[in-house]
Structures are given as C-alpha cells and as structure tokens.
Amino acid sequence: APTVVLDADPQRSSLQWRDLAEREDAVPVVDAVDQVDEAIRGARTHHRYVVVDCPPSVHAVQTEQVLASCDIALIPVQPSPLDIWATVHIEDKVGDVRRVNPDLRAVLVINQLEPRTKLSQLMHQALAELGLPAAQTAIRRRVVYRSSVLEGRTVMDLGSQGAAAADEIRQLIEEVLSV
Predict the structure, then answer these.
(1) Any idea which architecture 3-141 has in CATH?
(2) Is 123 exposed, middle or buried (0-12, 13-18, 19+ CB in 10 A)?
(3) Long-range CB contact pairs, 159-168, < 8 A, 24+
(4) Of 80, 90, 69, nearest in space to 110 by CA
(5) Contact yes or no for 7/28 (Cβ under 8 A)
(6) Rounded distance, CA 155 to CA 162, Å?
C-alpha cells in the first residue's frame, strides 16, 4: 500500500478505527506508541506516505519524536481562543525541533469549522498573526466525519453521503503536497 498510518497516540484511536474496518483493502495501521522512531524508519522504506497520529499534546514524547523526523506536520486548530493560544506553545516546539529537523514544514489546519459562527469567520485572520503558516483549506464540523469512524471507514468511502467532506480532505491533501 502506498500509505500507512502509524498510531503514536497512547489512546490508540487509529488502531480502534482500523479494527472496526471489515475490509481487507483498508489503510494499514501500525501501533507505534512505544517505538515511534523505529516505526517511522521502517514505514518509510515500504510506503510512499507515512501518516502519524500523535497525542493531542505538543509535550508528549511521541509528538516530539515525530516532529523530529517528519517532513510535514499538520496541526489541527479548532475555532476556539484556547486552541489559538495553545498554538503559541506549538510554534515554540516547532522552533526547537527545527534545530534537529531544519526541513520540518508545520502547517496549521482549521478543524471543526462552523462557517456561520463569528469565531470561525475570524480564524484565518487570527492564525495569520502567528508564526506558522495556515492551510487555506479548512475542515468543517460534519457529522459524517464521526459516523465514518464508527464504521471503520473514511469519508472517501461514503459516496454521496461523504462527498463534501471527501472534497475537503482531497483539497487539503493537494494543498499540502503542492507546497
């Protein structure tokens, strides 16, 4: 498979998602919580794309290890003052990690966007004031993202039911890989 997911989050959510998939062609997911560096090195030799699910903390050992060895870090930020404030710590961590991984590209991705709310409308402007670039593509708050997980699927697998969400994901992938 051209893509593999490494689950470096102690909650092991990606592994749980994969266990729900009842298809042989689902994206492979590998437990990488205890040996992130080794898992990344091994995955790079066999896969074109290695996606790593990290703990939701910039201070987690796994997150630091991934940042030190990855090419691109997508950092989800919800339309919330708390998330925006937390990106300052992420920005500092990225700066620290660039001493060992100078080519690291860190990109903020607006997640759970609700276009009609004032906070969501101000997100791009708020993120522009930070030192990390933000993707133009935002991921909207959609039930289909959560329901697809319960089925062990992705929004790409849901046909017309997941079409808008799948378009968002494709657009984000194209944007990130084109830079």
Answers:
(1) 3-Layer(aba) Sandwich (3.40)
(2) buried
(3) 164/140, 165/140, 168/137, 168/138, 168/139, 168/140
(4) 80
(5) no
(6) 5
pTM for the predicted model, two decimal places: 0.91
Provide the residue-wise pLDDT of the chain in tens; the chain has 179 residues.
799 999 999 999 999 999 998 778 888 999 999 999 999 999 999 999 999 999 998 899 999 999 999 999 999 999 999 988 888 889 999 999 999 999 999 999 999 999 899 888 889 888 888 889 999 999 999 999 999 999 889 999 999 999 999 999 999 999 999 97
SS (H, E, C) 79-122: CCHHHHHHHHHHHHHHHHHCCCCCCCEEEEEEEEECCCCHHHHH
**What token pair was written down for 109?**
């991705």
Nearest alpha carbon to residue 36 among 66, 16, 70: 66
Domain with CATH 3.40.50.300 in the chain: 3-141
Query: Is the Cβ–Cβ distance between 126 and 77 less than 8 Å?
Result: no
| Nearest Cα to Cα of residue 70 among 62, 82, 79 | 62
